[in-house]
Amino acid sequence: MATLTQGTDLAATAVRSDELMGLGAEGWSTATVDPLVPTTLDALDLPTILHALSDPVRLLMITHLADGRERTCGSFELPVSKSTRSHHSRVLREAGVIAQRVDGKCRYNRLRRDELEQRFPGLLDAVLQASAA
């Protein structure tokens, strides 16, 4: 976070407030937790999850992830553009339906089956069975 002093050069007056931001000794930090993604079971919200699962493309993504393997967005056979795939992944991630792991440039997605089953028993299986019918 930078603070500026009126009437001075931007580069000369940018000050990092390490103490306020809780940054390391170097003053830089990489985000390890996405603040928009529910991290606890209590944070999983049923209406948000049902909304995320209501789209046919997102439901298809969940069907592909139901085998338990991690997959990238690009590995899904979907009838949408790359940017739309990213949007659908974000909706599922922010609802807490999938988790994402970053490895270099790749982002691997996995279904949060165990967490969803603990919070809403039977929900995911019911949705997957209904989509298969």
- Topology as H/E string? HHHHEHEEHH
Estimate the global geometry from the Cα principal axes: globular
What class would the helix/strand composition place it in?
mainly alpha
Query: Regarding quaternary structure, how should these chains be classified?
Result: single chain
Taking pLDDT < 50 over at least 5 consecutive residues as the criterion, the unreliable ranges are 1-31
How much is the radius of gyration in Å?
20 Å
Spatial order of the strands forming the largest sheet: 1-3-2
Helicity, in percent? Answer: 40-55%
What does it look like?
By secondary structure, the chain is mainly alpha-helical. It has helices at residues 10-13, 18-21, 46-53, 56-65, 82-95, 113-119, 123-132; strands at residues 71-72, 98-103, 106-111. The chain has a three-stranded antiparallel beta sheet, with helices on one face. A hairpin with a 2-residue loop joins strand 2 and strand 3 (106-111). Helix 3 (46-53) packs antiparallel against helix 5. The longest helix is centred in the middle third of the chain and has 14 residues, at 82-95. 16% of the residues are buried. Residues 1-31 have low confidence and may be disordered.
List key phrases describing it.
133 residues, mainly alpha, disordered N terminus
Structure, briefly:
This protein is mostly helical and 133 residues long. 43% of the residues lie in helices and 11% in strands. The protein has helices spanning 10-13, 18-21, 46-53, 56-65, 82-95, 113-119, 123-132, and strands at 71-72, 98-103, 106-111.
